[in-house]
Amino acid sequence: LDDAAFVGSDALGRARIFAAAVKAEGFGMVLAGRQSIDSDNGATAVMLAEVLGWSQVSWIDKLAIDGGGFTATRAAGGGRGRA
Q1: Quick one: which H or E segment has residue 62?
Q2: What's the Cα-to-Cα distance from 67 to each of 64, 71, 82, rounded to whole Å?
Q3: How much is the pTM?
Q4: Which of 16, 66, 73, 83 gives the lowest tally of CB atoms within 10 Å of its CB?
């Protein structure tokens, strides 16, 4: 997505922009990076999930997609956690 109107958007603004695109395209899952090079706060993806009303999981080490679902695995303290 690229539009001069997006310049200066905060994390919530970017989440709303992405949510509109996700809805328009009919996506069922969004994979996002850990953080960005501009504000470096990692909030946009979490806010995107909230705006869409979706669940989210962060810091994934492994992702297995099976039919209509998925299993996400990440390091959790001293062991491994699953979401």
Answers
A1: strand 62-66
A2: 10, 11, 18
A3: 0.76
A4: 66
